[in-house]
Amino acid sequence: MAEMLHFSLKTHPFYEVKIMFSQIIVPAGNSLLLSFLLAAAPIMVTLIMMGVLRRPAWQSTLGGLTLGLILAVTVWGMPVTTAFSSLTNGMVFAIFPVMWIAISAIFLFNVAKETGRFDAFRAWILTNIPNDRRIILIVIGFCFSSALEGVAGFGSPIAITSALLIMLGFPALEAISYVLIFNAAAAAYGALGIPITVLGSITGLPAPLLASTAGLLMAPVSALMPFYVMILYAGWRSVRELWPVILVASLSFTVSMVLVTMFVSYNLTDILAPCTSLILTIGFLHFWKPKTNAAYAITEDINHSVDENIPKWHGWIPWVVVTIMVVIWSVFHIAKMGAITVHWPGLDNKVFITLYHKPYAALWTLEPLGTGTAIFLSALITAVLTKASLHQLKTALFTTARQGWLAVITVSLTIGFSFLMNYSGMTYTLGFAIASTGAIFPLVSVFLGWIGVFLTGSDTACNALFGNLQVSAANQLNLDPTLFASVNAAGGGMGKTISPQNIATGVSVTTLKGQEGVVLARTIKHSLFFTCLMAALVVIWQHLGIKLG
Q1: Nearest to residue 172, comparing CAs of 157, 185, 159?
Q2: Dist CA 211 CA 192 (whole Å)
Q3: Which pTM was predicted?
Q4: pLDDT tens by residue, 408-430
Q5: FRET label pair with 163: which of 17, 134, 531, 542, CA 20 to 30 Å apart?
Q6: What does the alpha-carbon distance between residue 406 and residue 408 come to, in Å, rounded to a whole number?
Q7: For residue 360, which phi and psi values (nearest 5 degrees)?
Q8: How many whole angstroms separate alpha carbon 474 and alpha carbon 438?
Q9: How is the beta sheet containing 21-22 ordered, strand by strand?
Q10: Nearest residue to 219 via CA among 482, 464, 486
């Protein structure tokens, strides 16, 4: 009889579900508050080590990961083998595709440097823009970096743009801090709108409606950002001196973002909006000139570093090539060609998401022709178009490897940490606690996106993680689910400013490598300011009962 019972259990259709690890949402003595604090502890360790103790990002993330692993096994009851499977899945995902994209973008940057096109680009900027670092900060730090975010993302716009600003006379810490703040404006639609596409597929809500809602939520923040950063950099007096050009950059970006999102295609928002802003701002500067201010002038002679045989407009070649390539890749779905999906051993459907009542898939897709490959080929095409020598190409490769190895380690630890938090259920404990705040949920919902992007470094991953939770909480509270799903995407953008992944990749080409904690300490208060501003906008939106569609 015992043998028959044993057999019947094993052959029962639900037996596989019973041997899954079921996530425990409230593991600490039936106390949601204590469970929330324990789940938040690894994140706090990372933030304190980076922001207070000023430790390198890899050490800080390793500290948070170690505590997270201990808590996942001992408090959340995650099997050790499952925990390590989630870590390895995250680390492999970090290397390919995430860091393949970032490293390829840095390789493109180094090809541009080795062939003299980066110097030519710098010379073109200073020839066609007034010699004033405040204006350069708006044109390059805001407009140009937002365009790069639309093409590549994953921290590479931070690295490329901050390197250019440093070459134009900005201190390294100022350059990377300002670009990180600006990056929040473009994150929701980065990489050709993939974050919104994923949010739509996860929640079942129309992606265009989500994009339009997120665009309107982001509009006040995007419009304010150039003014805000100018105050940080040069004070109110500079805002009074330069308000016309700041206003052109701000409004052209914001209005284009809203119009493209609502009436064209959200997939093109982060290319068309920043490019429109870049063109209109530079065009405006041909008709309007600020008063000369010697304190912000670049005194270095730029022409001595530029090969006289290289026309200055050639500096645009790398960026035009990569934009065209990535758009072609997206339109023709080249990334899907030859893609191989791997069901991650020991993890795929071995975890049950209690909150969503479904198994947790663990799929890793190997895309040999993914976006990273498009960017890498853009670098090679740039090398051909600029007639780079084999020595220059080899130097660019070795320089990229030297700059990028620590970023690869850091991002691998970061995303491994985020996968562990996700599969153990710790992230869902955080989300459930925030979603259970009742009447104040509209005020705190934006912090779900903020935490999600801090953990994953990606608005796309954050939307996949918390999109449904936002919708479920909104439905239970009789709130607008479309608004709160969109809040997740918009709030996630605010988290890009402090994401260890973003910071580690950004500092890789600067003298700040290993000093990510210094950068975090500089940017976290600004990230919190814009997140709180977004929260206030959400409360106002909900109170007014605004609905689209």
Answers
A1: 159
A2: 12
A3: 0.86
A4: 998 899 889 988 988 999 988 98
A5: 531
A6: 5
A7: -100, 110
A8: 10
A9: 21-22, 351-353, 358-360
A10: 486
